Automatic annotation (TrEMBL):
InterPro entries: Ala_racemase_N (IPR001608), PLP-binding_barrel (IPR029066), PyrdxlP_homeostasis (IPR011078). The keyword Ubl conjugation does not apply. One of its GO terms (molecular function) is pyridoxal phosphate binding. Residues 7-228 form the Alanine racemase N-terminal domain. This is Pyridoxal phosphate homeostasis protein. It comes from Paraburkholderia elongata. Pyridoxal 5'-phosphate (PLP)-binding protein, which is involved in PLP homeostasis.
């Protein structure tokens, strides 16, 4: 297992430096540790090192990890960040605190219907297809206002903001472009009377660009847990 205490500190230092460069308070940026493909023991070790919010991409894998860590459930925040098919929404609605990857109204409607009454509303972000490629999921910028309004009206969801996964880019200036587009859309929706407080953007390779453009949650996997192995 990598030295998670060291890695978490290094990522927090990157966030703090970028926040300082942006004139922002580093405490306004939350670190989501993306634990997909890593075992529950690694999540437990990251918890022991002080990390509380964890991101998962695959429903089955996530549910078994949440069950293995049931003793920590009240202390942890579980965020679903992966592609979500409509026939897999129920376990997500029942087990997670957040979903960042809501990419169509139908998914939001199902999550709202399936969210148990004894739980607080599910926090959600609308995923935006910021670079416009056909292959990526997410709502297009022109569709975003209408979809966001409809989601905000659902009873068991709390629409918190926007999420995007921009294409990898080389320089920090190039990386900033899609993050800036997402922030501009976020500001437009807020001017449109939607009460949003969350911009979920930035990963291991571009978190500085995301923080410079206003990210409030950065989703970091590799820089914390190491390279992922998809072979098994
Ligand atoms: C895997 C993943 C991440 C983390 O990516 P790293 O490059 O490992 O930091 C962040 N967001 C989403 C949606 C992911 O699927």
């Amino acid at each position: 297992m990598p030295d998670l205490t060291h890695n978490l500190e290094a990522v927090q230092r990157r966030i703090a430096l970028a926040a300082q460069a942006a004139g922002r308070d580093a405490r306004s940026i939350a670190l989501l540790a993306v634990s997909k493909t890593f075992p529950a023991e690694d999540v437990r070790a990251a918890y022991a090192a002080g990390q509380r919010a964890f991101g998962e991409n695959y429903v089955q894998e996530a549910i078994s990890k949440i069950e293995a860590l049931a003793d920590l459930r009240a202390a942890l925040e579980w965020h679903f960040i992966g592609p979500l098919q409509s026939n897999k929404t129920r376990p997500v609605a029942e087990n997670f605190d957040w979903v960042h990857s809501v990419d169509r109204l139908k998914i939001a409607q199902r999550l709202s219907e399936q969210r148990p009454d004894n739980l607080p509303p599910l926090n959600v972000c609308l995923q935006i297809n910021i670079s416009g490629e056909a292959s990526k999921s997410g709502v297009s910028i022109p569709e975003a206002v209408e979809v966001a309004r409809a989601i905000a009206a659902l009873p068991k969801l709390n629409l918190r903001g926007l999420m995007a996964i921009p294409e990898p880019a080389g320089s920090i200036e190039e990386q900033r472009v899609p993050h800036r587009q997402l922030r501009e859309l976020f500001e437009r929706l807020r001017n449109d009377a939607l009460e949003l407080d969350t911009l979920s953007m930035g990963m291991s390779s571009d978190l500085e660009a995301a923080v410079l453009e206003g990210a409030t949650i950065v989703r970091v996997g590799t820089a914390i847990f190491g390279a992922r192995d998809y072979s098994h």
